[in-house]
Amino acid sequence: MARLLFAGVFLVWATLVGSGDIRFRRIGNRLVIVGLAAALLSVVANENPFGISLVQSLIGASLGFLCFFPFFALRLMGAADVKVFAVLGAWCGAQPLLGFWIVASLAAGIHALVLMLVSRTPIRALWPQGQPVLALGGHRATPYAACLVAPAAMWLVYLAVAGGAR
Protein backbone atom coordinates (compact mmCIF):
# COMPACT_ATOMS: atom_id res chain seq x y z
CA MET A 1 0.00 0.00 0.00
CA ALA A 2 2.83 2.41 0.84
CA ARG A 3 4.46 1.76 -2.55
CA LEU A 4 1.25 2.73 -4.25
CA LEU A 5 1.19 5.91 -2.17
CA PHE A 6 4.78 6.74 -3.15
CA ALA A 7 3.96 5.97 -6.80
CA GLY A 8 1.15 8.51 -6.54
CA VAL A 9 3.47 11.04 -4.90
CA PHE A 10 5.96 10.58 -7.74
CA LEU A 11 3.27 11.01 -10.41
CA VAL A 12 1.89 14.14 -8.72
CA TRP A 13 5.42 15.55 -8.37
CA ALA A 14 6.19 14.79 -12.03
CA THR A 15 2.91 16.41 -13.10
CA LEU A 16 3.63 19.55 -11.07
CA VAL A 17 7.17 19.76 -12.48
CA GLY A 18 5.97 19.24 -16.04
CA SER A 19 3.04 21.64 -15.86
CA GLY A 20 5.08 24.32 -14.10
CA ASP A 21 7.84 24.05 -16.67
CA ILE A 22 5.41 24.17 -19.59
CA ARG A 23 3.34 27.07 -18.24
CA PHE A 24 5.95 29.24 -16.55
CA ARG A 25 9.35 27.87 -17.65
CA ARG A 26 10.15 27.80 -13.95
CA ILE A 27 10.37 25.10 -11.29
CA GLY A 28 10.57 26.25 -7.70
CA ASN A 29 13.22 24.95 -5.35
CA ARG A 30 10.51 23.87 -2.91
CA LEU A 31 9.11 21.47 -5.49
CA VAL A 32 12.59 20.07 -6.12
CA ILE A 33 13.23 19.64 -2.38
CA VAL A 34 9.85 17.97 -1.83
CA GLY A 35 10.58 15.56 -4.68
CA LEU A 36 14.00 14.72 -3.29
CA ALA A 37 12.67 14.28 0.25
CA ALA A 38 9.87 12.00 -0.96
CA ALA A 39 12.31 9.94 -3.02
CA LEU A 40 14.65 9.49 -0.07
CA LEU A 41 11.77 8.71 2.28
CA SER A 42 10.50 6.05 -0.13
CA VAL A 43 13.87 4.28 -0.25
CA VAL A 44 14.50 4.57 3.50
CA ALA A 45 11.05 3.04 4.10
CA ASN A 46 11.90 0.35 1.52
CA GLU A 47 8.74 1.30 -0.38
CA ASN A 48 10.21 2.93 -3.49
CA PRO A 49 7.89 2.24 -6.45
CA PHE A 50 10.89 1.72 -8.74
CA GLY A 51 12.31 -0.90 -6.37
CA ILE A 52 15.67 0.70 -5.64
CA SER A 53 17.75 0.89 -2.48
CA LEU A 54 19.09 3.92 -0.63
CA VAL A 55 22.54 3.41 -2.18
CA GLN A 56 21.04 3.19 -5.68
CA SER A 57 19.04 6.34 -4.97
CA LEU A 58 22.09 8.30 -3.83
CA ILE A 59 24.14 7.10 -6.80
CA GLY A 60 21.30 8.01 -9.17
CA ALA A 61 20.92 11.49 -7.69
CA SER A 62 24.67 12.12 -7.84
CA LEU A 63 24.97 10.82 -11.39
CA GLY A 64 21.96 12.84 -12.53
CA PHE A 65 23.46 16.01 -11.09
CA LEU A 66 26.98 15.35 -12.40
CA CYS A 67 25.79 14.49 -15.92
CA PHE A 68 23.79 17.69 -16.37
CA PHE A 69 25.91 20.19 -14.44
CA PRO A 70 28.36 20.80 -17.33
CA PHE A 71 25.42 21.77 -19.56
CA PHE A 72 24.29 24.26 -16.92
CA ALA A 73 27.84 25.64 -16.62
CA LEU A 74 27.90 26.18 -20.40
CA ARG A 75 24.46 27.88 -20.25
CA LEU A 76 22.93 25.16 -22.38
CA MET A 77 20.40 24.23 -19.71
CA GLY A 78 18.76 25.78 -16.69
CA ALA A 79 19.59 24.97 -13.08
CA ALA A 80 16.12 23.51 -12.51
CA ASP A 81 16.69 20.96 -15.27
CA VAL A 82 19.85 19.79 -13.51
CA LYS A 83 18.09 19.55 -10.15
CA VAL A 84 15.08 17.73 -11.60
CA PHE A 85 17.36 15.17 -13.27
CA ALA A 86 19.11 14.62 -9.94
CA VAL A 87 15.74 14.08 -8.24
CA LEU A 88 14.76 11.64 -10.99
CA GLY A 89 17.96 9.76 -10.20
CA ALA A 90 16.97 9.70 -6.53
CA TRP A 91 13.58 8.23 -7.43
CA CYS A 92 14.64 5.77 -10.13
CA GLY A 93 18.34 5.08 -9.61
CA ALA A 94 21.09 5.49 -12.19
CA GLN A 95 20.14 2.70 -14.58
CA PRO A 96 17.17 4.32 -16.38
CA LEU A 97 18.63 7.85 -16.52
CA LEU A 98 20.27 7.42 -19.92
CA GLY A 99 16.99 6.25 -21.43
CA PHE A 100 15.12 9.19 -19.89
CA TRP A 101 17.78 11.55 -21.22
CA ILE A 102 17.53 10.14 -24.75
CA VAL A 103 13.73 10.26 -24.84
CA ALA A 104 13.68 13.76 -23.33
CA SER A 105 16.26 15.01 -25.82
CA LEU A 106 14.29 13.61 -28.76
CA ALA A 107 11.09 15.19 -27.45
CA ALA A 108 12.85 18.52 -26.85
CA GLY A 109 14.35 18.44 -30.34
CA ILE A 110 10.96 17.80 -31.93
CA HIS A 111 9.44 20.57 -29.81
CA ALA A 112 12.16 23.00 -30.90
CA LEU A 113 11.72 22.12 -34.58
CA VAL A 114 7.96 22.61 -34.37
CA LEU A 115 8.47 25.98 -32.64
CA MET A 116 10.92 27.04 -35.34
CA LEU A 117 8.50 26.09 -38.10
CA VAL A 118 5.46 27.69 -36.47
CA SER A 119 7.25 30.92 -35.56
CA ARG A 120 9.34 30.96 -38.77
CA THR A 121 12.44 31.47 -36.67
CA PRO A 122 15.80 31.07 -38.44
CA ILE A 123 18.42 28.93 -36.74
CA ARG A 124 20.81 31.85 -36.22
CA ALA A 125 18.19 33.66 -34.11
CA LEU A 126 17.98 30.83 -31.57
CA TRP A 127 21.25 31.54 -29.83
CA PRO A 128 21.54 35.28 -29.19
CA GLN A 129 24.62 36.26 -27.26
CA GLY A 130 24.11 36.01 -23.51
CA GLN A 131 20.81 34.12 -23.82
CA PRO A 132 20.10 30.45 -23.20
CA VAL A 133 20.14 28.13 -26.19
CA LEU A 134 16.87 28.00 -28.12
CA ALA A 135 15.51 31.21 -26.64
CA LEU A 136 12.44 32.73 -28.22
CA GLY A 137 11.20 36.06 -26.94
CA GLY A 138 13.87 36.12 -24.24
CA HIS A 139 12.61 32.88 -22.69
CA ARG A 140 13.83 29.33 -22.92
CA ALA A 141 11.82 27.79 -25.75
CA THR A 142 11.74 24.13 -24.71
CA PRO A 143 10.45 22.98 -21.31
CA TYR A 144 13.21 20.40 -20.86
CA ALA A 145 12.27 19.38 -17.30
CA ALA A 146 8.81 18.47 -18.59
CA CYS A 147 10.49 16.37 -21.26
CA LEU A 148 12.54 14.65 -18.53
CA VAL A 149 9.72 13.75 -16.15
CA ALA A 150 7.36 12.49 -18.87
CA PRO A 151 9.31 9.30 -19.73
CA ALA A 152 9.89 8.56 -16.04
CA ALA A 153 6.17 8.87 -15.31
CA MET A 154 5.32 6.73 -18.32
CA TRP A 155 7.84 4.12 -17.20
CA LEU A 156 6.30 3.96 -13.72
CA VAL A 157 2.82 3.55 -15.22
CA TYR A 158 4.17 0.81 -17.48
CA LEU A 159 5.75 -0.96 -14.51
CA ALA A 160 2.48 -0.79 -12.60
CA VAL A 161 0.39 -2.06 -15.52
CA ALA A 162 2.89 -4.79 -16.42
CA GLY A 163 3.13 -5.85 -12.79
CA GLY A 164 6.78 -4.88 -12.52
CA ALA A 165 6.38 -2.09 -9.98
CA ARG A 166 7.73 -3.35 -6.69
In short:
The protein has helices at 2-24, 29-44, 54-73, 79-92, 97-119, 144-162, and strands at residues 135-136, 139-140.
In N-to-C order, the SSE pattern is HHHHHEEH
Going by helix content, strand content and strand pairing, the class is mainly alpha
β-strand amount: under 5%
Overall pLDDT? 90
Assembly classification? single chain
Domain tally? 1
Please mark out the parts with pLDDT under 50 across 5 or more consecutive residues, or reply none: none
**Sheet with most strands:** 2 strands, antiparallel
In total, how many beta strands? 2
Count every helix, treating DSSP H or I runs of 4 or more residues as helices.
6
Q: Biggest sheet: strands side by side, in what order?
A: 1-2
Query: Shape from CA axes?
Result: globular
Helical content (DSSP H or I, runs of 4+): 55-70%
End-to-end Cα distance, whole Å, is 11 Å
Radius of gyration: 16 Å
